[in-house]
Amino acid sequence: MALVQSSIPGSSAVRLSFSNSMPTPSKVSVGVPMVKGWRRSSCPRRVVLRAMVQEEAVQGSPSVYARDMERLSAKESLLLALKDAGGFEALVTGKTTSMQRIDVNERITSLERLNPSPRPTTSPCFEGRWNFEWFGSGSPGLLAARVIFERFPSTLANLSRMEIVIKDANAKATANIKLLNSIESKIILSSKLTVEGPLRLREEYVEGMVESPTVIEEAVPEQLKGALGQATTTLQQLPDLIKDTLSSGLRIPLSGSFERFFMISYLDEEVLIVRDTSGVPEVLTRLETPPSIVVEAL
Question: Where does the source fall among the domains of life (predicted)?
Answer without folding.
Answer: Eukaryota
